[in-house]
Design a protein that fits this description.
The protein is of the alpha/beta class. The protein folds into 2 domains: 223 residues, 3-Layer(aba) Sandwich (Rossmann fold); 70 residues, Alpha-Beta Plaits (2-Layer Sandwich). It is 36% helix and 27% strand. It has 12 helices and 14 strands. The strands form 3 sheets. It has a 6-stranded mixed β-sheet with strand order 6-7-8-3-9-10, with helices on both faces. The protein has a 4-stranded antiparallel β-sheet with strand order 2-1-4-5, covered by helices on one side. A 4-stranded antiparallel β-sheet has the order 12-13-11-14, with helices on both faces. Helix 6 links the parallel strand 7 and strand 8. The protein is globular and about 75 Å long. The chain binds adenosine-5'-diphosphate and magnesium ion.
Length: 333
């Protein structure tokens, strides 16, 4: 089933049509909790866009509004030119949504879950059966399709969730924390599936994640959301480049030495944003080559033994730390 791509009003001829356009989105929950304070972003057709941000930043609220499950107080959101508030039914046909919590029914098999989801979208007969087979294959569930989902692992269930979000061939797929809580191998597998879906070109993907390496790998562009506002937006490379300077990583042998090492670094001029992650102390410096000897000298002077001092280009984690004020790893802990 092919959908005609409708360009939203105001999209220039030369640019790719925006699959998703969000303008001034605001939302305060009953009780006075302000979740969104004016959010703007645009996602081009075929693009993978990641929303990053600490817990409570407003990522899920943004997704729920875009998927017509919640209403904004102000602002607009369009999917392929269709306004999600004014034409929710029409918008729903264009989108697939994989919520933060799994929507798999534990009393059915994988195939039954997927088939039911297709029926809810008005599909039936051979068209539906063929699509279910194809999707099970896509996410690698063919062999266990007829087993009860009660037996499925967390990762397998997540793959089924993604297949369920795709059954009606949406134009835009929303993935709210698709890999949170899964072990690294399964996460990597799901990344492959997402890359495959995006690579086919027809699908636009908006995902939220706590894993910055995931955003770095999968997303063409990212936006960092903090307290309901986008504080930075761009390609991962642009955001890292904007930080200016280098990251410096000091490793200590004994975890107990990490905090003293952090204090030594924090006390140095021109060393910014010092954080501890296990036995690694990370910071940003203007000129790494000049900073390394100073850092080593200061550590030695205070009796802190470092097993290594390394210079690195800033990671997306450094970007996140800079804008959100804390590291994504601390956030997950
Ligand atoms: N249904 C709700 N009712 C009241 N407050 C909510 C509701 N959902 C979310 N919030 C609040 O809105 C803010 C944003 O939440 P959310 O969008 O879930 O953030 P995120 O997905 O980035 O963690 C948080 O302060 C949260 O507590
Ligand atoms: Mg959330």
């Amino acid at each position: 089933m092919a959908h005609a791509v409708t360009a939203p009003p105001g999209t220039g001829g030369g640019e790719r049509a925006a699959a998703l356009a969000v303008r001034g989105l605001a939302k305060t929950y009953p009780g006075g909790r302000r979740a969104l304070a004016g959010v703007d972003f645009e996602v081009a057709a075929g693009e993978v866009f990641a929303l990053l941000g600490p817990n409570g930043a407003g990522k899920s609220t943004t997704m729920r509004i875009l998927t017509t499950l919640s209403r904004p107080d102000a602002g607009t959101a369009t999917i392929g030119g269709v306004d999600v508030v004014r034409e929710p039914q029409k918008a729903r046909r264009l989108i697939g949504y994989v919520a933060q919590r799994s929507g798999v029914d534990a009393s059915g098999t994988g195939r039954e879950n997927l088939t039911l989801q297709g029926r809810l979208h008005g599909l039936s007969g051979r068209t539906l059966a063929a699509r279910v087979d194809a999707l099970l294959e896509t996410v690698g569930l063919t062999e266990i399709a007829d087993r009860g989902t009660r037996e499925y692992s967390g990762g397998t269930r997540r793959k089924l969730d993604i297949a369920m979000g795709l059954v009606h061939e949406p134009r835009v797929l929303f993935l709210d924390e698709p890999t949170t809580g899964l072990d690294p191998e399964v996460r990597a597998e799901i990344w492959e599936h997402i890359t495959g879906l995006a690579g086919a070109g027809a699908l636009t993907i908006l995902l939220t994640t706590h894993y910055l390496e995931e955003a770095d790998r999968l997303a063409g562009r990212v936006a960092i959301l903090d307290r309901g506002t986008i504080v930075a937006q761009g390609t991962p490379a642009e955001l890292k480049g904007d930080l200016r300077g280098d990251a410096i990583h000091v490793e200590v042998l004994d975890p107990a030495a990490a905090e003293p090492a952090r204090r030594v670094l924090a006390g140095l001029a021109r060393v910014r944003e010092v954080t501890v992650d296990g036995v690694t102390v990370r910071a940003l410096v203007e000129d790494a080559a000049g900073a390394v000897p100073l850092v080593l000298a200061a550590l030695t002077e205070r009796g802190v033994t470092a097993s290594s001092v390394a210079v690195a280009r800033p990671s997306l984690d450094d970007v996140y730390l800079h804008y959100a004020g804390r590291s994504a790893k601390e956030e997950r802990a």
